[in-house]
Automatic annotation (TrEMBL):
It comes from Chitinophaga oryziterrae. GO terms for molecular function: DNA binding. Residues 13-116 form the HTH hxlR-type domain. Gene3D superfamilies: Winged helix-like DNA-binding domain superfamily/Winged helix DNA-binding domain (1.10.10.10). This is Transcriptional regulator. Pfam families: HxlR. It comes from the Bacteria.
Length: 123
């Protein structure tokens, strides 16, 4: 409930909605923020990422990594070893999501029980 705050005007709501839709466009999906968080902690190989984020298939992981690379959230480094080594790392741009990830984490912790109940209802 909003207390003692005036409601935003129509223009402010429309602007906020556009901003949110833009953010969701590049961060949509179940895995993107988890992948960014995983790579912010340290650079990793494909299999290391897949082992750390349980439940993601190889096909989806490959697609999500490509999307994140296209949007400059991660960098794919290819090293000419035998066999070729590919290491993924978070970019400086990904670090701009630090506050967003922190707020989502705090919200998730605060509302964990309600979210679990909702998940049980869906299954």
């Amino acid at each position: 409930m909003i207390i003692d705050e005036s409601l935003p005007g129509k223009e402010e709501c429309v602007g906020s909605l556009k901003n949110i839709l833009d953010a969701l466009y590049v961060l949509n999906g179940k895995w993107k923020l988890a992948l960014i968080l995983c790579l912010v902690q340290s650079s990793k190989r494909f299999n290391e990422i897949q082992n750390e984020i349980t439940g993601i298939s190889s096909k989806i992981l490959a697609k999500e990594l490509k999307d994140l690379e296209l949007n400059d959230f991660i960098k794919r480094n290819v090293y000419p070893t035998t066999p070729v080594s590919i290491i993924y790392e978070a970019t400086e741009y990904a670090l701009t999501l630090k506050n967003v990830i922190g707020e989502l984490s705090a919200w998730g912790e605060q509302h964990r029980e309600k979210v679990k109940q909702s998940m049980r209802k869906q299954s």
